[in-house]
Amino acid sequence: MQSLLNKKIVLGISGGIAAYKTPELARQLIQEGASVQVVMTEAAGQFVTAVTMQAITGNPVYTSQWDSSISNNMAHIELSRAADVILIAPTSADLMAKLSLGLADDLLSTLCLARDCPLLLAPAMNKQMWDHAATQRSAQRLLDDGVALLGPASGFQACGEVGMGRMLEPAEITEQVIAFFQKKTLLGKKVLITAGPTFEAIDPVRGITNHSSGKMGFAIARAAVEAGAEVHLIAGPCDLETPLAATGKITRTDVISAKEMHAAALKSTDSDIFFAVAAVADWGIAKPAKEKIKRQGKNAPAIEFIANPDILLDVAKTVKTKGGKPYPYCVGFAAESTNLEAHADEKRQRKGIPMIVGNIGPDTFGSDFNELIVMDAQGSKKIAKAEKLQLARQLIQLLAKKI
Ligand code: C5P
């Protein structure tokens, strides 16, 4: 799935060492379906060449305001008119200051002033430059003007220092550009999500778990942040990266067992929506051994199970009302080997939740694809087979209408 299909992006590059990552950024934007038109400042040319950017984007690269080969010599107007968004990565401290004041003394700054499309900036600079009151003033002015700042992040810097000012990685910038284009149907909403499997320890080295990859829950987390929500993602043991982490709109709690997941979910009391996507172990081990259980000839140890708390059921019991509407709006998930619809609807009613989503499967574990059936008191609706992120986006739009 390409999330930037038919989007026209003007990619500005200013003078900073992080420009060595911009070719990779351009490649990722193009892979997502965007067409990319590069505009470079003179200083950017010290770090990456116009030929590199032309070869990657397949488009001529603009470097000068004074290009007599352009028929009407109005590149600044034409480029900004044609764009869905202007993205500048890296944005130097100098360019931030110029843009915050409305200065326009080269092609890139001029087309920003002449634009009628959104402007996204990925700042990159040394930490002293970022922390300087002048840069902070520029950042605030730009935010007040409706410009979006992607990052910067904190970390190792080319100058050898460690601190705030690193440009976000190309993948993080691409993720945020994609998010920028999604409908903001959950602005101001808080979303709680459980995802992945749980692990029930038998002893310090063994345990019981299941095949859940966490992909569906993480896709819902990403789609919810894209829609403008603040997300608390409670993840069982899985090695997936937190989506859109650099936005600061998602907090992640890692847990191991169902009991830990239960405690974490019940602590999050102010959510508007709860998606119980985790494949929670129905049973835990009554008395996990403190030491590794030794093999005793041919005798296998007897393991006693105890029922785990039902997280969804217990969160559903905490539902309150705000403005006549219940919150959190609880959404369960069901994976069944037979009679999906009947079992799923029985679960929905037994757990006292308004909506349940059935995995039509059959092979949904670990896959990037799924097919869903959404069931509530009014009936059911299928969401055709697609990538989990695409399904998650559809589910979020459906939920936004419900709440
Ligand atoms: O029938 P079952 O309890 O497995 O229903 C599945 C739904 O309940 C899923 O949404 C799952 O995340 C949730 N669940 C839970 N806590 C459990 C078991 C299931 O939240 N202990």
What order do the helices and strands come in, and which of them pair?
Layout: E1 8-13, H1 22-31, E2 35-40, H2 50-57, H3 75-82, E3 85-91, H4 93-101, H5 107-113, E4 119-123, H6 127-131, H7 133-144, E5 148-149, E6 153-156, E7 162-166, H8 170-180, E8 190-195, E9 200-203, E10 206-208, H9 215-226, E11 230-235, E12 250-254, H10 258-267, E13 273-276, E14 283-285, E15 305-307, H11 311-316, E16 320-322, E17 325-327, E18 329-334, H12 340-351, E19 355-359, E20 369-376, E21 379-387, H13 388-402
Parallel strand pairs: 1-2, 1-3, 3-4, 4-5, 8-11, 8-13, 11-12, 13-18, 18-19
Antiparallel strand pairs: 6-7, 9-10, 14-15, 16-17, 19-20, 20-21
Helix pairs in contact: 1-2, 1-8, 3-5, 4-7, 9-13
The structure holds cytidine-5'-monophosphate.
The site of cytidine-5'-monophosphate has 13 residues, from helix 11 and strand 18.
Description:
A hairpin with a 2-residue loop joins strand 9 and strand 10. The chain folds into two domains: 8-180, Flavin prenyltransferase-like (Rossmann fold), CATH 3.40.50.1950; 190-402, 3-Layer(aba) Sandwich (Rossmann fold), CATH 3.40.50. The longest helix has 15 residues, at 388-402. The model has no long low-confidence stretch (mean pLDDT 94). The strands form six sheets. An eight-stranded mixed beta sheet has the order 12-11-8-13-18-19-20-21, sandwiched between helices. Strands 2-1-3-4-5 form a five-stranded parallel beta sheet, sandwiched between helices. It contains 13 helices and 21 strands. Helix 1 (22-31) crosses helix 8 (170-180). With 403 residues, it is α/β, with parallel strands linked by helices.
